[in-house]
Design brief:
Elements (H helix, E strand, L loop, with lengths): L4 H7 L8 H5 L12 E10 L2 E11 L4 E5 L6 H7 L10 E9 L2 E2 L7 H7 E4 L10 H11 L6 H14 L3 H4 L12 H14 L4 E5 L7 H14 L4 E5 L3 H7 L2 E6 L2 E7 H6 L4 H7 L5
Parallel strand pairs: 3-8, 3-9, 6-7, 7-8
Antiparallel strand pairs: 1-2, 1-4, 4-5, 9-10
Helix pairs in contact: 5-6, 5-8, 6-8, 8-9
The protein binds adenosine-5'-triphosphate and magnesium ion.
Length: 284
């Protein structure tokens, strides 16, 4: 069988223990068995535009990995490739591999709908369905048959709203439209909706960029709580946010990761001049 994902994973050089030196000088294309997700030589083009050029990155469980870099460097393209959202773009061509728990998610046999429940996504602009708060959260569990009866469904909805830090604010009005909430509340509703289908990973592409500082702080606190249970990948243009929230940073530049490592290290002692310029605010 050609391109057996497990076989190619096993054949990849595997690094044990700290690998910071290699990582920070550019990815070597290995897949770490301890990673929850990993990309290997991921190349993505839109017609003639090459948005990602052989990106390899390990994403570790129960950590926040922040993707930073100048506009157009491929952050959204990268995060969308982690749950195959790029598949919906007809001109988009993807090469390379993306592993989730050691299996290539681009395997043709993969059920993409199921994948997207396991790897949930929260977008830049809160996008509740035009339905009630309750129905926004209940929708996923219903279509995936996660609740045996109404009582269980109710429990999933309330539990998800609670974990998204929204329950207290909405428990007396679960039947009002999700769109009637404030922007920050809507974003927490979208997080509750993602959580309701029991994902392992939550992808967030600039989740706070449409929010005021108070709503942003609330989401940041929530992300910090959620990482105990989930693996989180976040794109942000805010260096302060990346620094406050993330355990690891990947700095993208023109479709490649030029530096990746522990957040404090990347901020305090960047190896690459381009990273230094960006994180110290000299460009961007
Ligand atoms: N749907 C698309 N069709 C064609 N080209 C696209 C599409 N999406 C992105 N691109 C191109 O791919 C490259 C990377 O874009 P991407 O949106 O991934 O960057 P980004 O780092 O998220 O930027 P920003 O910080 O502005 O959100 C850019 O040249 C962009 O124009
Ligand atoms: Mg983007």
């Amino acid at each position: 069988m050609e391109n057996n994902p497990i076989e190619s994973l096993i054949n990849s050089p595997i690094t044990e223990g700290p690998i910071m030196e290699d990582v920070r000088h550019g990815e070597e294309g290995y897949v770490d068995m301890k990673a929850k997700m990993a990309t290997k030589d991921l190349t993505v083009s839109y017609a003639k535009v090459q948005a990602l050029k052989g990106v390899s990155l390990n994403i570790y469980p129960n950590e926040v990995t922040a993707l930073i870099g100048p506009s157009g460097c491929g952050k959204s393209t990268f995060i969308r490739s982690l749950n195959r959202m790029n598949d919906t773009i007809s001109v988009c061509n993807i090469e390379g591999q993306v592993f989730l728990d050691g299996e290539n998610i681009y395997d043709p046999a993969r059920d993409v709908v199921q994948l997207r429940t396991q790897v949930g996504m929260v977008f830049q602009k809160p996008n509740p369905f035009p339905k009630s708060i309750f129905e926004n959260v209940a929708y996923g569990p219903k279509i995936h048959g996660l609740a045996a009866d109404d009582e269980e469904l109710h429990g999933i909805v309330l539990g998800s709203l609670e974990r998204a830090g929204l329950l207290d604010e909405v428990k007396d009005r679960l039947n009002v439209p999700g769109t009637s909430l404030s922007g920050g509340q809507q974003q927490r509703l979208c997080i509750a909706r993602a959580i309701a289908v029991r994902p392992d990973i939550i992808l967030m592409d600039e989740p706070c960029s449409a929010l005021d500082p108070i709503a942003t702080k609330r989401i940041e606190e929530l992300i910090t709580e959620l990482k105990a249970e989930y693996t989180i990948v976040i794109v942000t243009h805010s260096m302060q946010q990346a620094r406050r929230l993330s355990d690891k940073i990947a700095y993208f530049h023109l479709g490649s990761i030029v530096e990746h490592g522990e957040t404090a290290e990347v901020f305090e002692n960047p190896v690459d001049e381009r990273t230094a310029d960006y994180v110290l605010g000299r460009i961007g």
